[in-house]
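Subject: Interface between my chains keeps coming out wrong

I've been trying for a while to get a sensible model of this assembly. When I model each chain on its own everything looks fine, but I need the whole thing in one frame so I can look at the contacts. Pasting all components below, labels as-is. Any help appreciated, I'm running out of ideas.
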Amino acid sequence: MNTLFTLVFLACAFLLLCTSPDTFLAALLEGAGKGATVCLSLVATYSVWLGLMRVWEDSGLARGISKLLKPLSKRLFKTEDEEALQAISMNLSVNLLGISGAATPYGIQAANLLDKTENAEYSSAMLFVLNATSIQLIPTAIIGVRVALHSANPTDVIVPTFLATLLSTVLGVCLTKAFIKPVRALAPTPLLRKAREAGTR
Amino acid sequence: MTRIFALTIPLIFLASFLFALFRKVKIYDSFTEGVKGAIPLIVSIFPYIAAVTMLCKLLEISGLEKWLTERIAPFFEFTGIPTEIASLVMMKPLSGSGSIAVLTQILERYGVDSYAARCACVAYGTSDTVFYIGAVYFAGLKRKKMPAALAISIFSYLAAVIFSCFLCRIL
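Reply #2:
Try treating it as a single job with all components included. I did that and got this:
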């Protein structure tokens, strides 16, 4: 992102310097103003859904959902680590609601917990693919933007989004299963690997 | 069909609040506590959104965007993706907040309910920010299979974008 930003910015600045230098600052200010407007509409969206998420947590609904998702995530991730499974379930259910910003803390937690388990190579890849192709029941952020821009039918993107994201998730999971195979037996721990290397030397 | 889906959001809220009431949760306190979390979240993403919206404006008025879109148009036409959303398709894997900015720009330029705008909305929803997730979730963790997982994600993303533009045409 750093390289891209710098390259594009410099290219634009150079072009404008040659064509119309007086529009440069005006464009930056207008862009920043647009950024503030976008954030304002996102504050509205996040307020609504984070409020609901908190009610879910306090009423025990969140725990129920993660219990419901547990058999599925156990099979997908091939891990028995309770703590990691809990974090994964929360991460997946927030993703289902389409607030990927709120899913990030749970995702980081899950990645770090999975790193310590025996099947880490496979399960981290699965976590990555599932998050990257995030399946969404309700694309909340997009509906928020559409409402803010006075769409006649802000929710009419729900069905196609669900179908398209279902495709990307299923495709991603299948490819991961095919190309990054889970290890059945216990993978050698770093200590064991070191001992083995010492043995072959 | 769409009518039924429009009912889901109010139903989710109704069911959740009734359930919380049943479990004797102080709903007002709980809800406001959650809303509180929205501000830090926005504060953490605002710099990135603002930087990208500024860059978008520069791209637009310098004419570079038009030049770039014309270069990649053949590929997009071949796959059935409208060229209007090209910038979004390229932005999405890199930055979530940045692509929200690009999405808003597309919606404003072509009209919220136009074909291109609906494609943009659906394409936006098909995946998350692949590179960002790779960088943030797995910061500090060294995994051999990450490049493979990255390739799988990008491939699934492109397939889903093509599929979503097709869906927008028929639904």
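Reply #3:
Confirming on my end. Residues 24-59 of chain A form the longest helix (36 residues).
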